[in-house]
Prior knowledge:
Blueprint: H1 2-10, H2 14-57
Amino acid sequence: xxxxxxxxxxxxxxxxxxxxxxxxxxxxxxxxxxxxxxxxxxxxxxxxxxxxxxxxxxx
Length: 59
């Protein structure tokens, strides 16, 4: 009874717990993909910076 009251007062009911679990699982599953995307973005940004440098030094 007391635990149920505390969950209701703090907003952590069964639905919130299930949603937290689903989000946590989703984040764990997508973490490698996100890291790969961030690495590709960083590589592309470095390439763009190098190309900008090259165009500025072009005679």
